[in-house]
Design brief:
Blueprint (H helix, E strand, L loop, with lengths): L2 E6 L2 E6 L10 H14 L7 E6 L4 E3 L4 H4 L5 H19 L5 E5 L2 E3 L1 H8 L2 E5 L3 E3 L13 H8 L3 H10 L3 E2 H6 L5 E3 L3 H12 L4 H17 L2 H16 L2 H12 L3
Parallel strand pairs: 2-3, 3-5, 4-6, 5-7, 6-8, 7-10
Antiparallel strand pairs: 1-2, 8-9
Helix pairs in contact: 1-3, 3-4, 3-10, 4-5, 5-10
The structure holds ligand LP2KCY5N.
The site of ligand LP2KCY5N has 25 residues, from helix 2, strand 6 and helix 4.
EC number: 4.1.1.94
Subcellular location: Cytoplasm, Cytosol
Keywords: Cytoplasm, Lyase
Length: about 250
């Protein structure tokens, strides 16, 4: 199984369930996310949406390099990249608050998924980084657009993307990418976070979310995310990218 969907007590949870692959996203996970979004988008009983990863090692290690490496050209990579950026736009613009419960390492596209959410509640053991540049590509799922849109300070966002480092939870809080750090289990972290949010009626959260979405619509965020996918696709077909991925895959057990 690639994912788990659970909708209970007003909380909809999508869990990427590939712990043996550090919860890397493959086509089945994307289809699962589409199914999840279909279920929650118009569901007025859902007060909060949560995205997380199975196990305690990884939130998500980005795209599944072994599955996606067969895509050699820009034309081959673009459908996958634009499919996921479309899904992340839908995730970002869900009408209720969305929470990335970052239970372990998040790299590459894993950070893009987390950035698409309104909040990032992260384990004190987690690390995260936009490492795409080390693979000689840029973010392909719209994550840079989301970062520039949500995380203001221009030079800080640039460094985050261009230096492509993996940061500790403390550092992620300091640069204001993480909303809150938890210790203990992910369930405890989520419960603590939601206990504050749930003092407010869900309709108020939805109303504030509408204001954010209105801005993103006016700013053509969907189009900019798609353009980001196209830009990544152009880099994808270069030999520099294929060489790094081949090096990673040749190390596998
Ligand atoms: C493609 C979309 C693009 C975007 O648009 O953003 C991206 O997402 S680019 C980024 C792609 N992701 C990566 O480059 C990360 C690759 N993974 C790692 O660097 C490391 O696995 C880790 C995340 C730092 C964790 O390291 P470690 O704790 O040492 O675990 P292992 O490396 O041993 O991983 C266990 C197991 O999982 C496999 N794995 C991990 N990540 C991926 C992945 N992204 N795709 C496919 N498989 C992955 C890894 O190969 C190991 O497998 P086995 O050796 O068979 O056990």
């Amino acid at each position: 199984m690639s994912h788990i969907i659970e909708i209970k007590n007003g909380i909809a949870i999508f869990t990427i369930d590939r712990p043996e692959r550090m919860n890397a996203v493959n086509d089945a996970v994307m289809d699962g996310l589409a199914e999840f979004l279909d279920q929650v988008e118009d569901n007025l009983d859902v007060a909060y949406t949560v995205i997380t990863g199975a196990g305690n090692r990884a939130f998500c290690a980005g795209g599944d390099l072994s599955e996606f490496h067969s895509m050699r050209t820009a034309d081959e990579a673009l459908p996958m990249l634009s499919k996921m950026s479309g899904l992340l736009y839908r995730l970002a613009t869900l009408p209720m608050p969305t929470i990335a419960l970052v239970n372990g390492i998040a790299v590459g596209g894993g950070c893009e998924i987390a950035t698409a959410c309104d909040y990032r509640v992260i384990s004190d053991q987690a690390n995260a980084g936009f490492i795409q540049a080390t693979l000689a590509i840029t973010t392909g799922w719209g994550g840079a657009t989301l970062l520039f849109e949500k995380h203001g300070k221009h030079d800080r966002v640039f460094r985050f993307l261009s230096e492509a480092e993996v940061h500790t939870a403390e550092k992620l809080l300091e640069v204001e990418w993480a909303t809150e750090i938890y210790d203990g289990t992910a369930e405890q972290g989520l419960e603590r976070f939601l206990s504050k949010m749930s003092r407010i009626h869900p309709s108020v959260h939805r109303a504030y979310k509408t204001i954010a979405i209105r801005k993103w619509t006016a700013d053509f965020m969907r189009d900019r995310m798609l353009e980001e996918s196209r830009q990544c696709a152009r880099l994808w077909e270069q030999e520099a990218h294929h060489e790094v991925v081949e090096r990673f895959l040749s190390k596998r057990s």
